[in-house]
Structure formats: C-alpha cells, structure tokens
Design a protein that fits this description.
Helix 2 packs parallel to helix 3 and helix 8 packs antiparallel against helix 9. The strands form 3 sheets. An 8-stranded antiparallel beta sheet has the order 13-12-9-10-11-14-16-15. Strands 3-2-1-4 form a 4-stranded parallel beta sheet, sandwiched between helices. By secondary structure, it is α+β, with helices and mostly antiparallel strands. The chain is built from 16 helices and 16 strands.
C-alpha cells in the first residue's frame, strides 16, 4: 500500500492483558466481541440504540426515502468498519469476534471479505504480539460461535446483542444494557447532576404487560393503553416547558452524542419543544414487546453543570474495572472534543498531566469501580466528568464499554517515552476523518509525519473497492507542542 516502512506501534498494555490480569487465579478466558449498532432497527429488536439523526421523513417521496435508506446503510457499514478497527487496535493477542456483514445474505460475500481485509490491514501497524486472532461472523451466528469456543471462554461484548447466550457473557446482556442507560446512571447514587426521569408507564403497568414472545409488534399502542402513551408525551412536554434554566435532554442509549439535546437559551428550549413530537415518535417506535421492560423510551432531563468555561471542559477517564474487589487500572484522562451540535469527534491528551488527573479524580474512579463491581461487572469503562465553579466533580456520563479514546492511554509510553526529549507530550484522536484521497494517496501525502511517528493511522474504510468517492479514517496525531498537532490538522484539512 505504501513504498515505505510504517513504524511498528507497541501499546503499553491491551484489553487482552487487562482481562487476563482480572481473571488471574481462575481458568477462565475472555474473547472480545466488536459489536456495534447495526442501524437496522428491526421491529422485534431487544437492544436498541439511538445512532441516527432524528429528522422528519413523513413528506419524503419514494425516491427520497430510497436515497436516504441507501445513505444510512453506507453510514452504518462505515461506522461498523471504523469502530471494529479501532477496537481491534486496543484488543491485544486474544480472540476478537467481528461482525463483517450487516445483513445475513451478505455473509461470505465480496463486501464482507473486503470488510475483513480492512481490519487485517489496519492491524499491520501493531507489533505482531499484540494483534488479535479475528473470527468473522454475523450477529445471528454469535450463538454458533460460542459453541466453538472453549467451555471456560466467555464473551465480552462491546454492547449487548440480541440472541446472545446469557450464560456465555462476562455480563448478562440485559444488565449490560441497563448499565449503559442514562436512566440507570441517574439512579446509581454516583455524584451526578440533578435529573428528572420520565418513563413510559409505571413499574406496575409495565409488569402487567411483560414481553409476549409471540408479539413482535413495534407499535407501543398495541402494548399499553393509549392513556399511558398520552400521559408520557404530556409529561415530557411539561418537564421541558417547566425548566427555566440550562439543561440537557438525553435519550436512553445515545451514541457519540446523537440523541442528546442541549438547551442553553429560550430559543433552544422552543426549538426542542417544536421537535419533541418527532423525537417521541422515534423512541416510541423503537419500543416493542421484547424490550418494554428495559425502558428504551425513557427520557432523562439533566441540569447542566455550571462551569467557569463555556463550553465546560468535559474529561473522560478510561479505566479497567476488575473482579473480586481489585482496584481499577487507571488508563488515561482526556479532554473531549465535540462539535457545535454536541456530537463527539475525538479527544486530546497531555501525557505530563496523567498522574495529576489520576489523583484529582481518584474518588470518582473508586466509587464508580465499586458501583460496577456491585453489579458483577468487570471490563473497560469510561467516566465523563465536568468540574463546576466550586471544584465539585460531576459524573455526566458513564460508558460501560471500551471508550472511544482508550487508545490514547494505551499509547502513552510509545508516544511520550516517559518524558524523553524525543517524546511527544501531546496527542489527539480524530475519531472520523472524511477524505477524497485513496489510502495509497493518503499514505504518500502524509509520509513524513507517519515515518516520524507523529501520525498513526488506526482505521481506514473506503465506500468503494477502488477507493473512489468517500474514504474514512481514524487517526492519532502527536506532537511535543499543541501547535505541532494543530499544524497536522491544518494539513489534513488542506489535503482533504
């Protein structure tokens, strides 16, 4: 692909090594599963995620609807491809199961094989001892894969997937889905901002209508009385109208900020009120007989943390929670990078401040670890923290899976070299870069920073086999100064 030798990256540790540490003294092993939202939103889907922009499509022509569906399919494939490669980068030498095809009929197809090749190619940058053994499959065949693994091998899913055998998972899928939810965080007892939770139906009403395995109706009107649906809509609208200060409305299972609505002015509030019917239609449309009791349609309205900076700095702590009361492993603390629409775009790190951050946020780290251990969970976790004007630390999100910025922490010794003169003090993750260049053209254009080690290509996906059209990358940039990283970013924009 390139006419030069790309530097070999050696990570400080890997997910495989961290799971092995956690399981020390037992005969159990763990295989990672690179599960990502597939965007299909089936009518009987149990675990649903809010991974698409909520827009009004009621007036779409058939041609517009078809074009939108095609674009969304390409987006879903791209997000799965890039996400799988980024997780594989952190996985280590264990087994990693990957879903190469979105639809069953595509399994084993040319497109699926191209997906698999892309993952293999992206891992060539890693030292061979840290490359995972890949098992390509499709989601529906995951139960078959579990039978092929050893009796003491358990699956660690990035996010829960329908039809996964509960007995073979590190954490039960229903519990994992619950721990990933905004509702559970609001009820966790952790130091979170004040939240209002608006549920669809009371516990008693939900209990009366437990999932009927024969009923795959997507329309909640078939599940609950119309009065319950109406009350839910009215309660959400009343809660939004009743807020007279800045707040954020969150859907239960947001992805990278999609499904969060930031309100900082009367105009923002009015805009949200006008969009509420569409938003509620969307989440009610994801509610079915299989997931009603998991409350995917709950809405959380949270206070915004008052900070001396606008927007406030949002820190993400990556850590690994262990079994049996062991203390967690702190991996890194980064500053999140979000766009004007509050969509997550990446993260930045200062390696010289990591010891300070570990001490500063020790209480939040330990209480979160104990909370997750009380639910028998172990694995990688991300904690999003905002510090208010009184220096109080608020947990504003909890990511019970490998955080997107995890790789920045795993690269600390490789990039910073413990503060040596030739080390890079700063690094930045660009989660997704769109470019018109082919991979070969990109590697040639950025030959010098790649050879120098200040640019690491973690993932690459082309919509077309020949590289024509849209291509996507996930990158890590590094520099001894912030200005060096900014220069690389400017070069990326000018060479787009």
């Amino acid at each position: 692909m390139s006419d030069y030798q790309v530097p070999v990256v050696t990570l400080d540790t890997t997910l495989a090594e961290l799971y092995k540490k956690s399981l020390q003294g037992s005969n159990y092993t763990v295989s990672l599963v690179a599960s990502f939202p597939d965007g299909l939103h089936l009518s009987n889907q149990r675990y649903v995620f809010h991974d698409e922009e909520i827009i009004d499509t009621r007036n779409d022509t058939p041609a517009e609807a078809g074009a939108r569906k095609a674009r969304y399919f390409l987006e879903a494939v791209m997000q799965r491809a890039i996400g799988t490669q980024k997780l594989a980068f952190c996985a280590g030498s264990g087994v990693m199961v990957q879903f190469s095809a979105l639809y069953p009929e595509n399994s084993g197809s040319f497109a699926a094989r191209r997906f698999e090749r892309a993952v293999i190619d992206s891992l060539k940058v890693l030292h061979q001892t840290q490359v995972p053994s890949l098992i390509p499959t499709r989601e529906t065949d995951l139960p078959v894969i579990t039978k092929q693994l050893g009796s003491n091998d358990f699956l660690a899913l990035r996010i829960p997937v329908d039809r996964t055998p509960e007995s073979r998972c590190v954490i039960a899928p229903d519990l994992h889905y619950k721990l990933l939810s905004k509702r559970e965080l609001a009820n966790s007892g952790l130091q979170t901002p004040r939240c209002d939770i608006i549920d669809l139906g009371t516990d008693a009403e939900i209990a009366e209508r437990q999932a009927d395995e024969e009923d795959i109706s997507q329309d909640p009107d078939h599940l609950l009385d119309a009065a319950i649906i109406t009350k839910f809509r009215d309660d959400v609208l009343r809660a939004v109208r009743g807020r007279n200060s800045s707040f954020i409305l969150k859907l239960q299972h947001t992805v990278a900020g999609v499904g969060t609505f930031l309100v900082k002015s009367a105009k923002d509030q009015n805009d949200l009120i006008s969009r509420l019917p569409l938003i509620l239609d969307y989440i009610l449309g994801q509610t079915n007989a299989y997931n009603l009791q998991l409350r995917p349609s709950s809405v959380i309205i949270s206070d915004l943390v008052s900070s001396s900076q606008d927007p406030p700095i949002s820190y993400t702590i990556s850590m690994f929670v262990h079994r049996n009361g062991q203390n967690p492993d702190f991996i890194c603390c980064v500053e999140q990078d979000r766009n004007v629409n509050n969509i997550w775009e990446g993260a930045s790190i200062d390696y010289s401040w990591q010891t300070h951050f570990e001490a500063q946020f020790k209480d939040r780290i330990m209480e979160t670890s104990r909370y997750l251990q009380s639910h028998r969970h172990f694995g990688p976790v991300g904690i999003d923290i905002v510090v208010d004007t009184a220096e109080k630390q608020w947990i504003v999100d909890l990511t019970v899976r490998a955080p997107g910025s995890l790789a920045l922490g795993l690269l600390q010794n490789y990039l910073w070299k413990n503060g040596q003169p030739d080390g890079f003090k700063f690094a930045k993750l660009i989660s997704l870069l769109r470019t018109g260049k082919t991979k070969a053209q990109f590697l040639e254009a950025f030959k010098l920073p790649i050879i120098h080690g200040s640019m690491i290509l973690m993932a690459w996906w082309s919509e077309n086999e020949n590289g024509a059209g849209n291509n996507f990358a996930s990158l890590i940039l590094a520099g001894s100064k912030v200005e060096g990283i900014q220069f690389l970013e400017d070069c990326l924009k000018s060479h787009g």
